[in-house]
UniProtKB/TrEMBL annotation:
This is Beta,beta-carotene 15,15'-monooxygenase. Its cofactor is Fe(2+). Belongs to the carotenoid oxygenase family. GO terms for molecular function: beta-carotene 15,15'-dioxygenase activity; carotenoid dioxygenase activity; metal ion binding; monooxygenase activity. Fe cation binds at H9, H63, H136, H345. Keywords: Iron, Metal-binding, Monooxygenase, Oxidoreductase. InterPro entries: Carotenoid_Oase (IPR004294). Binds 1 Fe(2+) ion per subunit. Pfam families: RPE65 (PF03055). The keyword Iron applies.
Length: 356
């Protein structure tokens, strides 16, 4: 198995099986989904599905994807990798983000792949939407004859150019935060039973409380629009992964830059479309990590962890512990004399083996 690059966010089943996807640039660029059996090495991975890019020299960029009980789903968005620029970037002295092009007039395509067969669902149809950009999938699940997909979406890809390390230096961070585009928590619903008899120009989504639409507009396309659930900035999402990834769920926790003064952690209820928020003057939290209560009975039984830096001189960084249900502070652990880097991603391990 040979791939040219892989996404940042892998998935794993409850039995330890790993699912990932990446690009293959050789020949006509393609998207490759592969699976590594539990307890095996990467070299033992097997390709499950290969989907050709719709552009011969410009495969779409992606950072994450989703899995459900029966499907893989990924987004082919119009932020594309310019292979010619990639091949010459070292000679020209340009960075990888400079090798990305955004085509706002192109559609987003949702690819749904059957996990058992590796075949694309409804090969003769395309699920599509107007252009947007996404880094992070929140979660996805099957609901009757529909596939529900939750994403952190931006109106365009400008954010790529605004998250360099220099933009978060002490002298630039306030201006960066003031002008940083805000991601929205957007829910798309894809009808899985579409066929040649499906009527055109009719919303195929009949999900109570949802504003998402999916309309067959031509013989081969289903145009989708999202239900935008949270608009004040929602990134670095997490859920109760082991129990609810790929399954119907209610709560997601995210990182929210609302202004240069308000950097918050947010809990969103995707059913009631309400939210809870933690923020504190001068505090800069990191990605929230949900840790379920092993004795809990409800989805949000547990705690949310975040490493927090202070912009106030002399204030020690701390590990923040929030109640997963009420989103109120339960504890904080301070680390005097320790510097915690402003990070993007982290994870929680139940046990850590160490050798002294």
């Amino acid at each position: 198995m040979t791939i040219s690059s892989a996404v940042a966010h892998v998935h794993w089943d409850r039995d330890g099986t790993i699912h990932n996807m990446g690009h293959v640039y050789e020949g006509h660029p393609s998207y490759c989904i592969f699976r590594v059996p539990a307890g095996s090495d990467f070299k033992d991975g097997k390709v499950v599905s290969t989907v050709k890019s719709r552009w011969k020299f410009n495969p779409g960029y992606y950072h994450s994807f989703s899995v459900t009980e029966n499907y893989y789903v990924f987004v082919e968005q119009p932020l594309v990798i310019n292979i010619l620029k990639i091949l010459t970037c070292r000679i020209r002295g340009i960075s990888i983000p400079d090798c990305l092009d955004y085509w706002p007039d192109e559609k987003v395509i949702f690819h749904v792949i059957d996990k058992a067969t590796g075949e694309k669902v409804h090969e003769s149809f395309e699920y599509q939407s107007d252009a947007f950009f996404t880094f992070h999938h929140v979660n996805a699940f099957e609901d009757g004859d529909s596939l529900v997909l939750d994403l952190c979406t931006y109106n365009d890809a400008q954010v790529i150019k605004k998250v360099y390390m220099k933009d978060f230096s002490e002298e630039n961070v306030e201006e960066t935060l003031k002008n940083l585009p805000k991601a929205m928590l957007s829910r798309f619903v894809l009808p899985l039973t579409v066929n040649q008899q499906t009527p055109c120009d009719k919303n195929l989504i009949e999900m109570p409380g949802s504003k998402a639409t999916a309309i067959r507009t031509t013989d081969t396309t289903v145009q989708c629009t999202p239900d935008v659930i949270y608009t004040k900035g929602f990134e670095l999402p997490t859920v109760s992964y082991d129990l609810y990834n790929g399954r119907q769920y209610r709560y997601s926790y995210g990182f929210s830059i609302q202004s240069e003064k308000v950097i918050a952690l947010v809990k969103v209820d995707l059913v009631s479309k309400t939210s809870l928020q933690w923020d504190s003057p001068g505090c800069v939290p990191s990605e929230p990590i949900f840790v379920p209560d092993p004795n809990g009975s409800e989805e949000d039984d547990g705690v949310v962890l975040s490493a927090v830096n202070s912009v106030t001189e002399g204030e020690a960084p701390f590990l923040l512990v929030l109640d997963g249900k009420t989103f109120t502070e339960r504890a904080r652990v301070q680390f005097p004399g320790v510097q915690i880097n402003r990070d993007l991603h982290g994870f929680f391990r139940k046990t850590v083996e160490s050798q002294l």
